[in-house]
Amino acid sequence: xxxxxxxxxxxxxxxxxxxxxxxxxxxxxxxxxxxxxxxxxxxxxxxxxxxxxxxxxxxxxxxxxxxxxxxxxxxxx
Length: 77
What we know:
By secondary structure, the protein is mainly alpha-helical.
């Protein structure tokens, strides 16, 4: 009877320790997922922001290059 009680207490402490470890793993996974999503939001936001701010320059270049005549005949092409 005494051995069974000791064994049950040992099992209980092991289960409680495993529960703490699993909860810590779950918490770490949640934070990891959160920071991964935040990382991609920042990356995509920076891309769209850069495009937004560069749009006037891109439009100016497009106008300049569309105004240049085709010089292919000048070089024998």
